[in-house]
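Thread: Newbie trying to understand structure tokens

Hi all, I'm a second-year student working on a class project, and my supervisor (Dr. K.) asked me to get a predicted structure for one chain before our next meeting. I've only ever worked with sequences, so writing a 3D structure as a token string is new to me. If someone could post the tokens and maybe explain what I'm looking at, I'd be very grateful. Here's the chain:
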Amino acid sequence: MSIVLVVFPGAPKPTSEAMRAEQRLDEAIEMRILELVSHSEDNDFGQVLQRLLSSDIEGLPPAGLASKRALIEKIYKRLCPEQAGTVFLKKPQNSTLCRIRMMLAKRRMEKAEKENDPLTFRMPATKSQEIF
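---
Reply by user tm_fold:
Sure, no problem. This is what the structure looks like when written as tokens:
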């Protein structure tokens, strides 16, 4: 995959205040990761990321911590080199978010069936849906 950037001379440039805010945010994330890693014996990346997501970090962009994923991985690998292999998260079909989405979809389907909504698309149950 390739990407081509077209940059115009009159395009807005990052301000020094925006760059300082970005640097402060990166430092805050690093300090929070250091705090989480130093206070826990379970330094699995998924656990650290989960606790980081529940933290209140000021100055995050609209995309939240997802936009800082590369930075978080880099800091984690530097602080916990022995756990670097845990950076790769579980397959999407096994993730908590996926299970929650499946549970909500099943609830919506059950609600539609109770209301006898003929316009609702009904999927046959799969093994992953039978877990719920």
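A couple of things are worth pointing out once you decode it. The mean pLDDT is 77. Helices lie at 16-38, 45-53, 69-79, 96-114, 127-130. Feel free to ask follow-ups in this thread.
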